[in-house]
Predict the 3D structure of the following.
Amino acid sequence: MAEIQPLRGWRYNPVLSQHIDDYVSPLFDVVSQKQREALYRNQFNSIHLSVPRGQDAAGEALARLHEWQQTGVLRQDELPGIYVYYQYFRLPGSTREFCRKGFMCHIRAYAWTDNVVLRHENTLPSSVNDRAELLARTEFQSSATHGLYRDDAFELERWMDEAMQDPLYQTEEDYQGARDVLAVIQDAHIIDRFQAVLAQRQVILADGHHRYEGSLAYRQARLAADPAATGNEGWNYHLMYLTNSAADDLRILPTHRLLLDLPGNLTDAELLARLEPYFVVMPKEDAYDLPELIAGKQWAFGLYLQDGQAYKLRLRPEVHAQLSWDTTQEVKNLDLTVLHFFVLEKVLGIVGPDAQRQWPGVAYVRSFSECLKRVDAGEARAALFTNEVTMDEVERVCHSGAVMPPKSTFFYPKTIGGFLFSSIQAEETAHPFLVG
């Protein structure tokens, strides 16, 4: 199903690569304003290409890219390859070091209707347009999106492990505390096996929906301008980091909902009264117990209100049938769908997924303690805590053809920008590897 191709990666020159931590950056949609300002101060940091500044930001990125290529800041590898990318990380409260194994390559930019690359969330048109314009001007990609394929036989891991015996470079510790390591496979026979394995599989897009749709938009524009295109031009491809969803080092963290305001100036007592028909509402003494109290329980949530009021919410099973959104049963069974339908729609009156995506009264926050602090500080009226989505749920939803509520998944750790760059210019992708 999925066609992948090796690429001649662009990378920081050997001198700069010795200090690669100084030049990598968070992805465009997770980098904070404070992080941006600090990174912009380094004239060679990759953020100048991924999140450029100025009235003509894409033009600024193009000018800087040409300068870096001409002066040798960035150099292109002589041979095409599959770039192996490992991320070593730990989770709070655990002594185990995880290692998420994957590889970066070009993948054909399939339309959603091709049913080869599957999405699990919707996108914002403004962000897609921003990524498409940057790609159109530069024909250069500074970060890989994250895709998932399933291979229970783990065929590719042995070649990745072998390549990792001779890494190109690694970070000491990136912005999220992970150690990132890059290696390359340039053996044509091994690359052929990578292609053969992916040719039998669909890919679930875990992270990077806006960047991927930016590639789709650019590909459509080029096809419209050149109906005689062969299909092998560089703009048909997209840089993706692929990991095996069968591995147990794939981690999805929960994203909590912070209610910045309550419609109609609801009091806390009125909110609790409105929740009662749908949920069993159980007061709890200590808010810090909420994650443990809801862990592993279907349709269970934590609620934190001002003055330190903490509650465990559990949906009354008999009311689940009232969930009337036009979506698949796989989506209806998700905790977050239950939360959005019964709390945001039925209790707060924000009717429908489209209205909820646009509603400014909700913020999506990963940190449990940040949610508590912002409620205590009066910056929000309430916090709703949820369990993480499982990989099994992601796969079920994607194969059902539906999408999840916004901010349902947070695959951890994120890939980083500037670790490997990819050009989609025609002259750099003129000789595709064909699957044997």
